[in-house]
Design brief:
The complex is a heterodimer of chains A (115) and B (117).
Chain A lengths: L8 E5 L4 E6 L7 E8 L6 E6 L4 E2 L4 E4 L5 E6 L8 E9 L16 E6 L1
Parallel strand pairs in A: 1-9
Antiparallel strand pairs in A: 2-7, 3-4, 3-8, 5-6, 6-7, 8-9
Chain B lengths: L4 E3 L2 E4 L5 E6 L6 E7 L6 E7 L2 E5 L7 E4 L6 E5 L8 E8 L11 E2 L3 E5 L1
Parallel strand pairs in B: 2-11
Antiparallel strand pairs in B: 1-3, 3-8, 4-5, 4-9, 5-6, 7-8, 9-10, 9-11
The chains are: A mainly beta (115), B mainly beta (117).
């Protein structure tokens, strides 16, 4: 699986947009970009994923550059409850085989949302 | 609550003892995963099942570790002869594989925190 690089920590003011970057310069054509977050003492929570196009759901937006070598997770109006570790993960799509199930987590970005 | 559940939530054991953890996935999810997380690190993959078949095991899963999913529903993870280095959060996740082209997310349980003294 391609390796990802994220800043170790970021701060954001409550109510403002949080933009979390991720570099994945070795991503290959069939690999998706996934984002998960982990609030303290809880299991990771799926946020969003994408292949090429930008994606949006009720939690966040995912912007993937045209060359797919980097992406940005956007939390449009951060709240205190968004304080968590955010993980950017690259993994193959489910095109068969048995090794596409696992997620390979890095150390993620600790996002702290301030009042 | 229809999420992934894990039992127990916390376990303290003495070195050398055996421990067993249970994971109940979301109903009808056919894939089940085990991960381990130590302090300050992201979760590390241990093993996963599709239905009752164990399809992949990490090199982290030493011969003291064994996982089962006998009827394709709940799963157990057993650690024999525990060592202090086994102290960690053990996370279970489940997902549903629809078809060869679909992509799917994993839903995680709250984890079992193991402390080996």
């Amino acid at each position: 699986d391609a390796k990802t690089t994220q800043p170790p920590s970021m701060d954001c003011a409550e109510g403002r947009a949080a933009n979390l970057p991720c570099n994945h310069s070795t991503i290959s054509g069939n690999e998706y970009v996934y984002w998960y977050r982990q609030i303290h003492s809880q299991g990771p929570q799926y946020i969003i994923h994408g292949l090429k196009n930008n994606e949006t759901n009720e939690m966040a937006s995912l912007i993937i550059t045209e060359d797919r070598k980097s992406s940005t997770l956007i939390l449009p109006h951060a709240t205190l409850r968004d304080t968590a570790v955010y993980y950017c993960i690259v993994r193959p799509g489910t095109t068969g085989g048995t090794s596409y199930g696992k997620l390979t987590f890095g150390q993620g970005t600790i996002l702290t949302v301030h009042p | 609550d229809t999420g992934v559940s894990q039992d127990p939530r916390h376990k303290i054991t003495k070195r050398g003892q055996n421990v067993t953890f249970r994971c109940d996935p979301i109903s009808e999810h056919n894939r089940l995963y085990w991960y381990r997380q130590t302090l300050g690190q992201g979760p590390e993959f241990l093993t996963y099942f599709q239905n009752e078949a164990q399809l992949e095991k990490s090199r982290l899963l030493s011969d003291r570790f064994s996982a089962e999913r006998p009827k394709g529903s709940f799963s157990t993870l057993e650690i024999q002869r525990t060592e202090q280095g086994d102290s960690a959060m053990y996370l279970c996740a489940s997902s549903f594989k629809r078809d060869r082209r679909s992509s799917y997310e994993q839903y995680f349980g709250p984890g079992t925190r193991l402390t080996v003294t």
